[in-house]
Amino acid sequence: MRKRELKNIEWSVGIIAIILCIIGLVALFSATQEAEYDEFNKQCIWLVVSLIIAIAVLLIDYQSIVRISPIFYGAFILLLIAVLFTTPVNGATSWFDIGFFSFQPGEFAKVFVILFLAYAITKIQEKDKTSINKPLKLLMILAIVIVPVLLIMKQPDYGTAAAFIIATIFMLITAGIDKKYILGAVILVVVSVPLIYNFILPEHAKKRIDIFLNPESDPRGSGYNIIQSKLAIGAGGLTGMGLLKGNQTQLGFLYPKTTDFIYAVIGEEMGFVIGCTVIILYVLLITKCLYVAKTAKDEAGSIIVSGITGIFIFHIIENIGMVMGLLPITGVPLPFISYGGSSLITNFICIALILNISSKRQKTIFVK
């Protein structure tokens, strides 16, 4: 990488990600003391692996990665089909269990679907920027996303499927989709939500929505986790109860405290101050990502960063929202903080792509 490119890199994006990881590791250290810090130790290993992979991605020109994205897209479609035949874990067939590492293809597929989608959009727009608004072309683009979304819903993993949809919306808006399609999509969602709830969603998914609306209706069953999460956050106060001292965290009432409800651990043991700091860091991360998307060298770079930003926004809002009881529980991890090798590696690949794209920007020269 040339010296000029190193100067162009939006290093603040990577720095924020590292700070969030450190906060996550502190929370994991406290949350895993009764398990002899097993998940904490593994997360430290995954962080090192993630950084090595991120450096490798940073050193490869993102345009080269985009060109070979159709191959990776096809490979991950096959993996998403194969994972459906694995043994269910907590009712979902989302993981390949490879001894030390549980590989979740749906997480990695986010990256390669975004890359392939950017590749397809730029190819379609090569001769005519408005061609994306032609119904047939738009359907071709949507088909790229629909296939993995349907496979992931089959697992079932509705949270990850929703992340794909949000990323696609961000990418299409960046690519210049006509507002009439956006308005049409909004109307379609409003009309289809009650139909999906009554005729498509399985019973366990309906129950999650019902419990979200009224968790006290089943306080010892489906509403238990969200009630304990809100109790944990409320007990934390301004500065928290202290590491290794949270009642809900340390007495086993909060579950799963290392993944879905890690933010509740932060709220209980580190308090409102650190909880707000995490949110501020996420806001800064999203702001920086949007700036990179705006200043990217080409359309492909801008579309890729927009898609990644969409995924980050969805995960952040959904996870923190569900922990606070503001959104239904979907099992979506909190970026850089929740325990999980697949999630952490995927997030750092995304960060590396953003840094890669930012390095190719042309700095504006002002003439007096």
Name its key features.
two-stranded antiparallel ribbon; 2% strand; mainly alpha; 368 residues
Task: Describe the 3D structure.
The chain has 368 residues and is mostly helical. The protein has one domain (3-359). The chain is 69% helix and 2% strand. It contains 16 helices and 2 strands. The chain has helices spanning 3-8, 11-31, 38-59, 62-67, 69-82, 105-124, 135-154, 158-175, 179-199, 203-213, 224-236, 247-250, 262-269, 271-295, 299-323, 341-359, and strands at residues 96-98, 101-103. A two-stranded antiparallel sheet has the order 1-2. The longest helix has 25 residues, at 271-295.
Indicate the topology.
Elements: H1 3-8, H2 11-31, H3 38-59, H4 62-67, H5 69-82, E1 96-98, E2 101-103, H6 105-124, H7 135-154, H8 158-175, H9 179-199, H10 203-213, H11 224-236, H12 247-250, H13 262-269, H14 271-295, H15 299-323, H16 341-359
Antiparallel strand pairs: 1-2
